Amino acid sequence: MTALLLLPTLLYAQINTERVMTIARNALYFEDYVLSIQYFNQVINAKPYLYEPYFFRALAKINLDDFQGAEADCDLAIQRNPFVVGVYQIRGLARIRQNKYDGAIEDYETALKYDPENVVLWHNLSLCHMQKDDYDAAKEDLGKLLTIAPRYTRAYLMRGEVNLKQNDTIQALKDFDKVIDTDRYDADGWAARAIVRLQQANYKEAEKDLDQAIHLSAKNAGNYINRALARFHQNNLRGAMSDYDLALDVDPNNFLGHYNRGLLRAQVGDDNRAIEDFDFVLKMEPDNMMATFNRGLLRSQTGDYRGAISDYSKVIDEYPNFMAGYYHRAEARKKIGDRKGAEQDEFKIMKMQIDKRNGVSSGNNDKDMADNTGDNAGGDTGKTRKKSDKNVENYRKIVIADDSEADQRYKSDYRGRVQDRNVNIKLEPMYALTYYEKPSEVKRMVHYHKYIDKLNHSKVFPKPLQITNMEAPLTEEQVRFHFALIDAHTSDIVADDRNAKKRFMRGLDFYLVQDFTSSIDDFTQSILLDDTFFPAYFMRALVRYKQLEYRKAEATMNEGSVSGTSDVKKTEVTSMDYDIVKNDLDHVIQLAPDFVYGYYNRGNVLSLLKDYRAALADYDKAIELNANFAEAYFNRGLTHIFLGNNKQGISDLSKAGELGIVSAYNIIKRFTNTPE
Question: What is the arithmetic mean of pLDDT over 306-313?
Answer without folding.
Answer: 96
